[in-house]
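User: tokens in, sequence out, please.
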């Protein structure tokens, strides 16, 4: 939760008036438990979403945002929670984890990757984007940030410009995507 990309995503959603929570998965930082290969971490994310929703039952829209492993967990949560209406997935590790569960993907969103990502291969991510784009009733945006590596070192401003541009588009009352 102290990763700088996660912090910037948090600040962006807070600035837009969303009720927002960032948290550590089990075993990270001072959290309890041990890494559970995604199973327990998905449970962590679902519990966190339940907790946020208990404080904001009036919220008309729920979004999920994640970076790297957190993007993979976020996409799994998206499949289990129909109230999630949009996602921002930054550098999802399509070459390291199976994303086949996204058939069909229930929500439109954006996938953002650095062109020089040394962790997530461009081909694997492009295959994921292409597969998602074949599905009806959703729209998948895909942004590539020039010169950016997996951690968007020296390119945070461009990453957040992409995030903010997408949110401006989706939150506009005239946006064709609902």
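Assistant: Sequence out:
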């Amino acid at each position: 939760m102290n990763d700088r990309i996660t912090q910037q995503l948090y600040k962006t959603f807070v600035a837009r008036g969303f009720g927002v929570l960032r948290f550590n998965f089990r075993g990270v930082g001072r959290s309890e438990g041990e890494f559970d290969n995604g199973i327990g971490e998905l449970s962590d994310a679902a519990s966190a979403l339940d907790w946020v929703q208990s404080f904001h039952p009036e919220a008309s829209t729920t979004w999920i945002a994640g970076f790297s492993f957190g993007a993979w967990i976020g996409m799994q949560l998206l499949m289990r929670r129909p109230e999630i209406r949009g996602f921002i997935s930054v550098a999802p590790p399509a070459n390291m984890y199976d994303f086949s569960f996204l058939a069909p993907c229930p929500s439109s969103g954006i996938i953002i990757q650095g062109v020089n990502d040394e962790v997530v291969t461009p081909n694997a991510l492009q295959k994921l984007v292409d597969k998602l784009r074949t599905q009806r009733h959703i729209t998948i945006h895909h942004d590539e940030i020039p010169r950016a590596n997996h951690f968007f070192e020296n390119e945070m401003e461009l990453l957040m410009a992409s995030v903010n541009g997408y949110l401006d588009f989706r939150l506009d009352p005239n946006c064709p995507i609902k």
